[in-house]
Structures are given as structure tokens and as C-alpha cells.
Fold each of these.
Amino acid sequence: MLRYATEDDRRRQIIEATIETLAEVGFGATTLALIGRRAGVSPGLVSHYFGDKDSLLEATLRHMATRVGRTASRRLSAARTPAERIRAVIEANLAPEEFDRRTGSVWLAFWGQVIHSQRLRRVQIVYQKRMLSNLRHALRALVAPAEAERIAVATAAVIDGLWLRATLSDPHETDSSAARAIAVAFVESAVEAAVKAGSLPAPRPTRMSNIIRNHVGGRPIDAADRKTFETVNPATGEVLAEVEIAGEAEVEAAVAAARAGQKKWARMTGAERGRVLKRVAELLRARNDELARLETLDTGKPIQETSVVDVLSGAECIEYYAGLAATLAGEHVDLGPSAFGYTRREPLGIVAGIGAWNYPLQIACWKSAPALACGNAMIFKPAELTPLTAVKLAEIMAEAGVPDGVFNVVQGFADTGRLLTRHPAIAKVSLTGEVGTGKKVMADAAATLKQVTLELGGKSPLIVFEDADLDNAVSGALLANFYSAGEVCSNGTRVFVHRSVKDAFLKKLVARVKKMTIGDPLDPKTQVGALISAGHMEKVLGYIEKGVAEGAKLAVGGRRVTAGALARGAFVEPTVFDGCEDGMAIVREEIFGPVMTVLSFEGEEEVIERANATEFGLAAGVFTRDLARGHRVVAALEAGTCWINHYNVTPIELPFGGVKRSGLGRENSRAALEHYTQLKSVYVALAPIDAPY
Ligand code: NDP
């Protein structure tokens, strides 16, 4: 403990010296040597603690952002009303200490660099997200969710603008207290105007339970600093629960629990582990309805999907690996009469799983099932937008007899994820997320040479040849774009249709899209539910606007849905763009919403080349009656998973994963076992050693 305290002190001292140096000489002239001199340590010691200059600067920015975050948390916990909470955020961000010349110049130096450095940008995004989420939470108690989002964004901009103006201009123009008064007046008038215009807050929650805690060592634990975030039903804006954030203390507790649990778990035979996992699968099936409902509330996905896919596909996966657990084996190697060799397939130890928000429970199962079957312990972090069902999985694991510490859930934002990806005791990390996050995770994992499995984004092609059964191809295109409101990584959002059948295809497609039912996700008739959040809806609508501006033609959809109670949620019509060109942003970038782009082509070689002209390589689909062509084309497509005359089916027996920037490694099937085990080779001598000495 003492050693850590000293290391921490030393790190803080170096960070303080970095702040002083930045304030004095600016970004470009700051060097490790200058910082070391100021801190009274050698440049070598600075790099021992922080690696290179970029890592030290990132740690310094994180330190400054955390300081503001802590001040905000302190003030927020003392606030009693929503108005006081808004003031608390403003006061923390425009506090007098953020205005002093030294701190101001360092913040300015960092913000200037953010556009050049992805690492600093990431810290800035977390910082901004936190400010926005605090404002949004307080505002939701005063106005409707959409208005709360709008006013939160505007207030954050006012705060940033005031700070910037004050820092850059004459010191007497605006000081901290004047800036705070202006920001408070701004929010008050915006809220007043919204209320006058009839904007009412969403009904307050019937809370599922007061607080969701981190699940460590087989039980919920209290978080040391009690910081929480809210999880919201994106269909109504209703707060579902408050969730405690795991910081260093909780991650350390999870690692300690996993270490102890894994030893016990790995000593069991594969057949014994399989038996326990089979019980987990049975419990998941038995609780399908309750879990599907919870998943629908947390994600906004229609109950008609979650009740037949999300929970059951997770259960199927656990059942599959329960069966494989007893089959794990090494190899016997004949080395002649005087020796033989064999290999042992051993677990890696403690592994981390980090999940995305689109299939929260399924992702938790896809990662934990092979990991646990192979004798590892897992620490899983769900996306902060969907924290609820992973905790249920942990409870079910405990009930089924999985030893304490073998499956732990820690909650939080990217900071919590990083505590896992950087932890020296964790041997592997499996991430499902965006390409940018994958790069970060891989870089962080490199410091301790962790293995990684990365399931990342895509912009997959779906090719419809002129001989395809068009009704079938339309069914495939619908499945490839509108399931889970389009929030599926493998979606075939670039639909290439042969010029000779494009009009007929489009006519059938539009007619079927028009019949789709958008509505309350809990209504079994609803086919299209809400997007994951108001923020994500804005991103999707932004892409639709961009598509129109770039000259694509809206064939159907394109608008937010605000009829009746849906106005409270993040609903967007299933949208089809015709007249698309390969270079358009809507054709190149992952939108992760219900937006299909239709492109036309003439030749097989041409379409293969265009389909492959992307940095992604997650999936691809081909519709044709000519099976020889089907096989020929998928062989030429650069994608990890391909379908011929179908789309988006992912049986557990087939490997799933991407090529190019869409990922590394595979989930599902026997292939995943390779990623959760390591081989030990053993040489056994059968004759005396023939030593030459
Ligand atoms: P993100 O990449 O934003 O987040 C994924 C997870 O990583 C979250 O739990 C997030 O935490 C965490 N995280 C973010 N930054 C870091 C970091 N630096 N270190 C460690 N952890 C971090 O993805 P989304 O949740 O937005 O999911 C959508 C993306 O996931 C899409 O690109 C989609 O294509 C992809 N996806 C891929 C799949 C596949 O199998 N290939 C399947 C499903 C989705 P938090 O969000 O809590 O801040």
C-alpha cells in the first residue's frame, strides 16, 4: 500500500509540474526534460511513470477534467432541486479557479491540441459528455426530454463560450461570477420559454430498484465514492434506475474476486463447468419474458424482437459452450521411441468483456460463455446506456452455481473500461464497439500485451443480382436494415441492385417499408421501436439531412416520429435513400440507424470492387439464383461473415467477426475457444538423457 501511495504522489507531482510547464512555455516547447527538471526527477523517471510525452499530456488533461468533475459531483450532491443542480454544474465549470491565468492558459493549450490528437479528444469527449449528462438530468425534471436535450446542449455551449471569451479577453470584461450569472440567466429563460410553449417533463419513474450496484464476487457491492449515472428508457425519457459507477476501488475488488474465483473454476473439470453453465442457460430461458421486457425498456427495441432473439440467443450461446466445455483437449505428439509430447489447452486467467448498447444481454453472453467454458473468470462492463441486463446475468450465474468472482459486472463510462484494458492482471479484453474505440482498446492493451478480440463497426454491402428472387431479396434487405431500428453492426446498409431490376426492387421495398409499424416498444405489434438515445437520434437525423443535401433521393421515411406519446422518445422512420453515389457520407459511414442506401450496378466485377471499397469488412450478402455465382462472389468479398440468399442470421455454430477495420478474432463456434485459451507444450522423456558433457 505504501508503495502505491508513494507512486501516486510521484505521479501527481509530475502532473503538477506538467501543468506549470505548459502554463509557462506552451504546448510545443514542453518536453519531458523540462517537466522532469521542474518536478526534480530525471526524464527517465517521467517516462517510467507515463511512457511518452503524449501519454503524460493525456494523463494531465484527464487529471484536470477529473478535478472539475469532482467539484461538480460535490456540488451536485449538495443540490436539492433541479434548478440547484443546474447551478451546481455551471458553478463547477465556471469556478474562479478555472479562470486563473495559469489554469486558463493550460486549458487553452489543451483545447488547441484536441483537433490534432485523438487521445486528447477522447478525454475531451468524456468531459463534455459528463457535463451534458448532468445538465440533461436536471433539465428533464423541468421540461420534456427533447427540450431538455436541446437546452442542455445550448447551455454547455454557453458555458464553454463564456469561459473562452473570459480567458481570451481583457481580465475585467468577464470574471467567474459574472460568467456564472449569465449562464444561469440563460438556462432560466430557456426553461421558462419551453414551459410556456407547453413542454412538460416526462412522468417520473416507477423505479425498478433504487440503485443498481456493481456485481463483484457473486454479490452487489457499494461503490466507494457513490457516484452514479442514470439509465433512461429511450422510448419515453423515463429514468429507469440509477447505476453506481465503478472506479479504481471497484475494479481492484473485481480483479481480486476474479483471481480467487478463477482458480476454483479452472480446477473443475470441463464437464463440471459445462453442467453449471447449462443451468445458466436454463434459467435464462425460464426468465425470458422478464429479461426481454427489461431489455426493451433499456434499449427501446420492440418486445417482438427481444422476446424471441435477445435473451434466447444468449441462452443458446451459453448452452453451446456448456456442451463444448468437456471437449477441450490438447494433442498427443509422437516423438519417437524415446519421448513424446503433449499440449494442454489452458485458460488465460482473468479476461475483460466490454459491451456495446445494441444487444446488451446477448453480447454479455457471447463473451462470457466461451470465456467461462474455458475456465477463465470474466469482468464485464456493459455500455453505460444499457447497464441493466448484465447484472441480471450475474445474478443468474450466481443462482446456477457459478463460483463467486467468476463473472463480475462493473458499470461506468469509458474511464471504467480503461481501468480494465490497462489492468496488468487482466490477460485479455474482448470489445464490441466502434472502430475508434477498438483502436484505443488495442493501444491500451498493448502496454501489458493483452490479447484482444475486437467486434467493431461495419458498412456492409448487400448485392442483388438480376436473377434474384426479388421478394426474397427485399425481405433480406429489410432484415439487413431495420431490425433493432437499424442498430445492428452487420447491417447491409449499402444495397447494390442490378440496374435492370432496381425499379421493381425499389417499388416492392417501399411498399413493404410503408407498412411497418412504428410504436411503443412494449406493444407486441410494434416492429420499429426507439433508437438508443435522443443524442443518437440527432446523429441519425443529421445523416439523413446530409444525404438529402448530398443529392440522394428519399424514397420513403426520413423523419423523426412524434405522433402522440412517441414525441417523448427517440423514434425515426425506416428510411430508404435512392439515387445514392459511392462517395456520399451516407454510403461511406456507419450510421447505426434505420437508413438504407440503394445503389445500382451493371457488372459482377464492378459491384465486387465497389462493395470492397471500404475500410470496413464485417459482413456481406448476395442474392442470386445462380449458386455458382453466389459462391464466386462471396469468395471475392472482403468480409468476415457472408450470406447467400439471406441476411443477418448468426447461428452460434458459425464464427462471427470482421476483417479489415471491422475487427480481430472471432466470436461464436469452436473458433472462439482459441481466443480464450493458450497452449502449453510438454515434452516427456522416456529414455535417459544422452548428455554430451
Ligand atoms: P462504443 O465504441 O462507443 O462503446 C463500446 C464500449 O466500449 C462501451 O462499453 C464503452 O463505454 C466502452 N469504451 C469506450 N471507450 C473506451 C476506451 N477508451 N477504453 C475502454 N472502453 C471504452 O460503441 P457503442 O456502444 O456506441 O456501440 C455501437 C458500435 O458497436 C457500432 O460501431 C457497432 O457497429 C459496434 N458493434 C459491433 C458489433 C460486432 O459484433 N462487430 C456488434 C454490435 C455493435 P461507454 O459507452 O459506457 O462509455
Amino acid sequence: MFNWILKKIIGSKNQRDIKRLRPAVERINQLEQEYQALSDEELRAKTAAWKQRFAAIEDPNEERRVLEEILPEAFAVVKNGARRLVGRTITVCDHPIEWNMIHFDVQLIGGMVLHRGRISEMATGEGKTLVATLPLYLNALTGRGAHLVTVNDYLARRDCEWMGALYRFLGLTVGCIQHDQPPSVRREQYACDITYGTNSEFGFDYLRDNGMAMTKAAQVQRGYHFAIVDEVDSILIDEARTPLIISGPATVSTHQYDQFKPLVEQLVKKQTLLCNRLMSEADELFAAGKTEEAGRLLFKVKLGQPRNKQLLRMMEDAERRRALDKSELSFYSDAQKIELFNLKEELFFTMDERAYESDLSEIGREFLNPDEPDAFVLPDLMTAFADIDNRKDLTEAQKNEEKAKHQAVCDRKGERIHNITTLLKAYCIYEKDVQYVVEDNKVIIVDEYTGRKMTGRRWSDGLHQAVEAKEGVQIDRETQTMATITIQNYFRLYEKLAGMTGTAETEANEFHDIYKLDVNVIPTNRPVLREDHNDRIYKTRREKFNAVINEVRTAHGRGQPVLVGTVSVEASETLSRLLRREGIPHSVLNARYHLQEADIVARAGQLGTVTIATNMAGRGTDIKLGQGVTELGGLYVVGTERHESRRIDRQLRGRCARQGDPGTTRFYVSFEDDLMRNFGAADRMTKIMERFGMEEGEELEHSWLNKSVETAQTRVEQRNYLSRKRTLEYDDVMNKQREVVYGLRNEAIETDEPRKMIYEIMDEAVPAKVGGFLEGDDAEPNYAGLLHWVNVTFPLGLTAERAEFEKKTPKEASDFLIGQVRKSYELKCSHEEPLAVLSLERYILLNAIDRLWQEHLYAMDALREAVGLRVHAQKDPLIEYKNEAFEMFVDLMGNIKNEVLNNLFRSTSNLMAFEKFLSNLPAHLLRQEQAQQPGENHAAPAAPAAAARTTAEAPVGITLKKKTPQAGRNDPCPCGSGKKYKNCCGRQA
Ligand code: ADP
Ligand code: MG
């Protein structure tokens, strides 16, 4: 009852919406009549005039206003253009087609609904392809591009070539994105006034432009102004569960942890031996009552091996602990600075647990590099360059060569210092089962405060890899996510989005909630003559199939064409076998080849044909009746099972009775069907059937039973909607982060002065670092740590004397450092090609953003999995996810800044390697990896052979794929058939 009232209200609202558009239709038709008197040139001139008018408009509100104002004229121009094309032959997908269409009134209404940014529900065969020309033409006049999104490449090309005739006639350009196009061609297509393409091509281009392009020139798209999504339910609902992912080989790692590991291991061993010896000595000294000397040794061990087991044990003794504290205090007093230095030099290296820093001593350095005493200090490039400049014996070119040599040495050193100190930290500060655990060959961080495992988090700046190297668990990630977006979030980028399909009404809620798209049901051009019969219901599948075959045989005997719909490929095959046994000729729709499919569908309305198809949603080809078929009652659509979703059933029904043709539909259902078993429909029905006294082998039909089936369907729809909504809620978190990162990235690509961005980063990151060393909560300022950090990060060759950090406030220290770094950086740049410096700087930014963002994506994936497990801990995983994702994002932004600093002087060759890696990936090598989905019509199939060949040719190729949600064996199959995964097509999860 309630539903009925609701329907009444919604229904009448829709009627009101449509009625309101009627006067505009009249106005358009009136104008169109006037335009009939114009010459072709005069008509075309209108396009140019409007384009010029829009070119001068900058205010978006003004643009919107003008669009409204000229709508009737623009629509009339399109309609009039269509009229002028009648009789012309157009080549569409290599076939000649004669143009015979002039927009009907309902098509004008559909066009206006699209222009308003809504969904036009128009039945199959109502000519949606032509409807789209109206709002596309109008919105393209702004010069900001208008996109039409189709479900597959074939349809994109077909519709673009077909409707292209009209656009070109009116003076607009039109392009079409196809799977195999290189970037240069893509860019041309996007530059057109109107562009056709599939959702995945549009989405992948967005990801490549924003997540991978290294220069502005490498980007192909030009904004997200207006898009119409054809078969909108299929794209925004059926495909929405599979995000687009670009994955590539894990970033070429430039670290050499494995190479340095044995050396560092030996050094750590030596230090352990040394510290153990010191501990025994201390023990003896304590026994001899020489407390002060013993305390000094304890302090020394604490410096060299803070987690030494004997030391930790000895600290439990209050007296000895006091001795250590006393010694420590005295060493940190100013008077003892030299003493402290000497003490440190007696060790191989020292560890600062608090600052998580390590510092090699002279003997440590010597051990690691006996022949190169300076191996662990970055050279003072500034002075070196100044010296070179002063030399009279060198030409300019020679000077530059000399400088480059110094630079290279500096780079190599920087990398090595970084590797070794990171390894040292991994060995001496990061302890297994304290800071991390090793599980399943993975290093998992343990939260210091809660002791909770932070699955998926990774330490940055190479530390994680160093710990992995230490534990010998470094597993190479073969591929990693480089960029990802859900279809939902791609389409939310558009300023205005519209959609069209034969079936949106049942999903109106979802369209409204998620995309803010309202649905208007457009009346058909002619009254619908279709007859939908009640379902026929059987106890078993076998009985049901027998009945279907009988029905098909009878209809076929009359010559009436039959379209048999199934919900799975398996059922299609069973039916095909049964029909073969009966000697009934038929074809089976195979979604693999879109073009061939279109041919089969086109023939499906001919006298005596039988066609079997799985899931007709989003197929985009309508079935025209052959000669003499109308007299036989038109196309007969037989459904062999109710789909989980009412929408898919409506799609199937909608294949007959197009444009006022006759047609009938009937569904066959059995109690053994999944839908009936799983959603309680069978129970209810058994009761009803008992009342009717149904016997084995009998069939039953009644409108009450249809209702029962539909109740079950609504339940499943609701459940699926919630799961899609959930996916989106998770993705929303990522989406906001993506916007920030892509924004930063685009800034780096577009700016003429990347150095300015770097300096801004420096202004934030240096004070943060300095603060970390000098302003810890109730901790002593760590001057040595700061100096160490400065000297391994920047080639300043700074000494404690020159730095005088003790005499500076943190702010002064930061300012001093920023000044020094800038000076030395500018000096380094002064001898280099300015253009090269510019691109290198851009690189430093992009490299830092990309590398860390990819790590972040990886971590977010893991986090997503990890929070899922916390449901058991009575926590809302989404909230957990949001909180942790936020923390991780804050870390990410901080890390990006630090990485930029670290790379400012670090190996340019590393950065260059990254560039080479990316520039070696021309788009034609990028392959979209997409599991074929039998029975479902998916975008852009790459022939398997071609994909394999590509992999062989380009070992570093990047694969593009649509991620399949992880499906358990009992979950619904991701192909959308509605069957359990284990019983279905076995599409790889
Ligand atoms: P839909 O996408 O709505 O299912 P299509 O755009 O594929 O429908 O069009 C179905 C058929 O209707 C096409 O063969 C097309 O030529 C025809 N058609 C569409 N609009 C008109 C029209 N205004 N006049 C004549 N034929 C039309
Ligand atoms: Mg269509």
C-alpha cells in the first residue's frame, strides 16, 4: 500500500517534470521549421557564432545562463541538421548506412533531461544515440569539451562515426578514444569538441595524466566538463565494484642494502664484542669498588649498544644504575664535550635511541672503508666549486667537467652513507618483536604505545627495506599499484554528469544518493504494445528447462523469432545443448566479440531465428523485426531465470516491442534457482502452491507469485547496494587524499619555477627537523644528532664550531641552515644547464610524490584488509580505517617533504633512472589487463595473444586492469551473473 502511494507520488512528479518541458518542445519545433529556409552555410554559421560568444564568457554562471537561453535554438539546429542529412550514406564501422533519423518530440525531451544533468530512462530502441547529439552539441559550444561514455570500444566507434556525420555537418569536431591509441592520438581526440570513448579509457587516461605524466605535454585530457554516460546503469552500477588500477613493476630500487648488509653485520658484531668486554670490565670495577670508572664504562656501552643485554640487566641494580646516570650527566655537561667526543671515538659507532639516529666513529668508518677516510662525510661542494672557478688553467668546459666529477662523487657518497646509516639503525635500534614482528615473510610495524600490529604500515626513507634486508625477508614486490580510482569517483570529477539507459528507475535511489543523478522516465515515441506474461513456476530446474524448450519449439514452428535470456553462461550452454538435440537451429551470443555480437543481435528479429543471450544489460544494440514478423506477434522474449536484480530482467524484456512493435515476454522460474533458494521466495511460494494443490511436474502462474519473486529481488538489490555504498565510503577516504596529492603533483608539473616549490618545502621541513632535534619534550637538545643529519643530507661539510647550534634558538638554527643549503644549492646549479636544472627540480618533486604515494597506496590496501579483521574486536572498521588513513596521510605529506630534501643533493643518477623508467613506457605498451567475462559485456577486450606478446616485448610494461573484488567461493561471482563464484565462470578473482 505504502509503495503504491509512493509510486503514485513519484510517478506524478515525473509526469510533472515531463509536462513542464512540453512548451520547449514546441518552441524547438517551431524554430526548426524556420531554419528549414536557411542554406546549409547559414545553418552552420550559427555554430561558429555561438562558439565565439562562449569564448568570451568567463563566468560559469553566465555560461550556464547562456546555455539555457540558446537551448531551443541549438536543439533546433541539431534537429534541422539531422533533417538535411536524410538520404545521405554514411560509413559506420566500414558499413554503409543511410541516414533516416529526425529527432522525435520525446527525443527532444530526453535531450533536455540530459542537459539538466539527469538520467533519461528511455526504452531500448527509442534512439538514445540520437538523443545524446542534442545536449552534446549544446554543451560542446562552450569549447570545454563534452564526453560520451559507452560500454565498449566498438560502440564508441560506431556511435562516433554515425553521429559524427551530424556534428561535422554542423561544424563541430568529434573524436573517439580507442584502446590501442598512443598518447598523441588520444590528445587529438580529447581536443575535439565532442569525444566518444569507454569508461575505462577515460578513467585510465585520467590516472595516467595525473598520476604518471612527467610533463604537461604528456597529458592528454583537458578537463571534466560534461559527460553523458550511455547504459548508465551498466557502467555506474554493475561496473562500479571494480576500481580501475594501473599497476607496474615495483619501482626500480636503487638501494644496495644487500650489498652493504654483510659489512654492517660484521661491524655490529665487532661492536657487540667490544661492548660485552666493556661490561665485564665494568663488573670487575664495581666489584673493586671503583664505581665512577665503572659508571663511565656503562655509559660508553649505552652509547654504543643501548640495548645490550648485560647492560639492561645491570640497570636493574639501583646502585649501578645511579653510577651510570651520574656518568651520563657529567659527560653531557659542557666542560666534558671533548671527553664525550673521545669516548665516542672509542666505539665503532654510537646510537641515539631517542632521535633514532646513528653515527659512525672514526674507527667505524675506517673499518667499513679502510682506504677512504672521508667516505662518510659529504664533501663541501661550495668550496670545491669556488676553487675550481678560481683555477686559471681550465677552460669553462673543463671547469664544468671538474664540477660534474665532484658532483658525481658526492652523489655516490650520499647514497652509500644513507644506506649504511639506515642499516645500522635497522640493526641497533629496531628490534625484532619490539618495534616490529616478522610474519609471513613480512616486516610488520608494532605500535609503540599500544603494542598493536600496524599491518601494512611501512617506515619511510628506506628504513623498512633495511629492516627487511636485516631479517632476510625482502621479497620483491613484482608489481605495485601506481594509480587507482573507482569509476564512481572518476565520474564525480565532471562538473555536469548525465546518463541514459532503458532501466534506471529501480535503481533511482542509488543514482540519487551516490551521483546526485535524478531519473526521469521519458515516454516512448509510440505506445508500447508489449505483453508481459506472468512467470511460469516449476518445482525443479529440469522441468523448467523442458518447458522452455517446448515453448521455443512451438514459437519456432510458427516462425516467430525467440530471444532466450539466461543469467549464466552455464545455463546458456545447457539450453544450447537441449536445442541442438531438438534440431532447432540457434545462435549463442558471445560477449567476446562486440562487432560479431552486434551482427547476431541485429539478426535476432528475423523470421524463425532463435538466439540465446546472457545478461542483455548494456549491450547497446536493438533488435529490429524482419519481414512478416509483426503478424506473428513480434519478438518473443523468454527468460529462463529471474536475475538477482529486477533491472536486468527489465533489460531483457525491453528487447522486444521497440518503437511500437508488438512483442511478448515470459519468465520461467524454478524452486531450484539460486534466487528462490537463497532469499526465502521458495518458502513463501511453497505455501501458496500448497493452497493451490500443485502436483509434481505441474506448472503454476499467478500475479501473486510474481510479487514474491520481486520481493526476493528487492532484498538482494538492497544488499548489493549497501555493499557498493560501503566500497565507496572506503574509497572516499582515498579520494580526498588523491585529490590533494594529484593537486600537488599537477602544481609540480605546471609550475615554471619548481625551485620555488622546493624552497617552500624546505621552509617547512627544515624547521620541523630542527625542532625534532632541539625541542623534544623534556629532553635535552640533541646538537650532535642535528649536525649529523645536516651533514648526511646536505653537502655543507658543517662542523660543530661553524654551526654553533648551542648558541642559536631553534628558529635561528633553521634560518641559518636554510640559508646555507640554499646558497650551496644555488652554487651547485650555477654551473649546470638551467633547463636541465629546471627539469631535475621538477623531477625531485615528482619523484618524491610518486614514490611515496605508491608506497602509500600499497599501505592503504593493506590497511583496508587489516581493518576488516577488526570487526571482531567490536570496532567499526570504517572509522578505524578513516582514523588510521588520516594519520598515514599526515605522515605521507611529511615524508614527501623530507624526501625532497634528501634528494636535493642526492644521486641525480637515481632520479634519472626513474625518469628513464617512465619514459620507456610509451602508452602503446600499456595494456589493459582485463579478464574476459563470458556473458557480460565489458569494455575493451585486449586479444589475449596481443597482451602476451606485449609482456614479452616489454618486460617493464605497465598493466592496466580492473580489479576484481576478492570473491570467496560462496560469494557471488564477480562477473555479475549472480551465481556463486564456485559455480560460475571462474573468472579470476
Ligand atoms: P537505444 O540506444 O535507445 O536502444 P539506438 O540509439 O540504438 O536505440 O537506436 C535504435 C534505432 O532507432 C536505430 O536503428 C535508429 O536508426 C533508430 N532511430 C532512432 N531515432 C530515430 C528517429 N528519430 N527516426 C527514425 N529512426 C530512429
Ligand atoms: Mg543505445
